Amino acid sequence: MKTYRVNDIFYSLQGEGHNTGRAAVFVRFSGCNLKCAFCDTDFASFEPLTGHDIVERIRHHEARLVVLTGGEPTLQVDEQLIDALHEAGFEVAMESNGTLPPPSNLDWLTVSPKTKPRVQRCNELKVLFDEAETPNDYGIQADYYYLQPCDVGDANRNASITRRCVEYIQRHPQWRLSLQTHKLIGFK
């Protein structure tokens, strides 16, 4: 039976993008094919879990949205795991860097590219807005386009980045602002 390297499972609110504010169960997978300096995931620790184990750990939560995240979940997640989550009554969303093709049976795909992605279509494109003047949309077609100010760990620089991000969105209204509201309200 296949096992997945799971870094963490937790219940919270979706803090970013289109589903902001929705209660969700997060399954964070260990491992990534990129090494982003700002990443907040511990890749060294994980627990090997089967799809059945994952479903049993999340089944008791009231929310029926599960968010598969990482690391990079496309390194591990397959259609069998998503089928098991669907059978348990969950809507399945994934947050990916877009470098690998996702399983075809997802309900929602958020791509947050850090390099040239292979994925060319998603529900939601979420681009980190840093100190560059023009964000790259990477040629991805999406239902929704979000810019998220990058948290660089410095309050003054963060304020400047956020202000420039808002100004950019005002000039380019196809983009929407995504804030990390879970951090703003002190949740995981």
From TrEMBL:
Catalytic function, reaction form: 6-carboxy-5,6,7,8-tetrahydropterin + H(+) = 7-carboxy-7-carbaguanine + NH4(+)
Superkingdom of the organism of origin: Bacteria
Cofactor: Mg(2+); S-adenosyl-L-methionine; [4Fe-4S] cluster
Matching SUPFAM superfamilies: Radical SAM enzymes
Residues annotated for [4Fe-4S] cluster binding in this entry: 32, 36, 39
Associated pathway: Purine metabolism; 7-cyano-7-deazaguanine biosynthesis
Enzyme class: lyase
Residues engaged in binding substrate: 13-15, 28, 69
CDD domains (UniProt xref): Radical_SAM
Entry EC no(s): 4.3.99.3
Coiled-coil segments on the chain, per record: none
PROSITE patterns the record matches: RADICAL_SAM (PS51918)
Residues reported in the UniProt entry to bind Mg(2+): 41
Keywords annotated in UniProt: 4Fe-4S, Iron, Iron-sulfur, Lyase, Magnesium, Metal-binding, Queuosine biosynthesis, S-adenosyl-L-methionine
Residue ranges constituting the Radical SAM core domain according to the UniProt record: 19-188
Presence of keyword 4Fe-4S: yes
Residues that coordinate or bind S-adenosyl-L-methionine: 38-40, 71, 112-114, 148-151
InterPro entries on file: 7-CO-7-deazaguanine_synth-like, Aldolase_TIM, rSAM, rSAM_sf
Assembly and interaction partners: Homodimer.
UniProt record similarity statement: Belongs to the radical SAM superfamily. 7-carboxy-7-deazaguanine synthase family.
Protein name stated in the entry: 7-carboxy-7-deazaguanine synthase
